[in-house]
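We treat protein structure as text, and this decision shapes the records that our systems exchange. The tokens are whole numbers drawn from a learned vocabulary of local backbone shapes. Below, we set out a record of this kind in full and without editing:
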Amino acid sequence: MPYCAYCKTSILDIRQKCPNCGSTRYLNEEAPPTAEPKVEVHTVYVEKPVYVERPVYTERTIIRQGESAHSWLTALLLCLLLGGIGAHRFYVGKGFTGFLYLITFGVFGVGWLIDLILILTGSFHDKQGFPLRRN
């Protein structure tokens, strides 16, 4: 009796496909089936996942409209510690006046004192004219 060459199932009618695997290849009884394990190979296509980058919001990036991105506390500390060289002016984007403070030691100490009072009262603004952000 013939059998399937792939799955070793006995075949009754050679003119039809194998009822188990659908093969049309058969072997005769002279070549007995081997005891090889049946191995099935299937190709599986997996859809590649799509990753969407979402913005990460931190406390520093959330700024209300009409408010500076620069911190009031940082400007105050820079003015106290390095006000004579204009570090607080460089911090808020006022580079030209920062350079003037640098070469004149805070416009001889008077401009530095005025900036310190403006920062403490909340009247100091950045380059765009927005008040500094309170933490």
Observations:
- The radius of gyration is 41 Å.
- Strands lie at 3-4, 26-27.
- The chain has a mean pLDDT of 78.
- The helical segments are 72-82, 87-91, 95-108, 110-121.
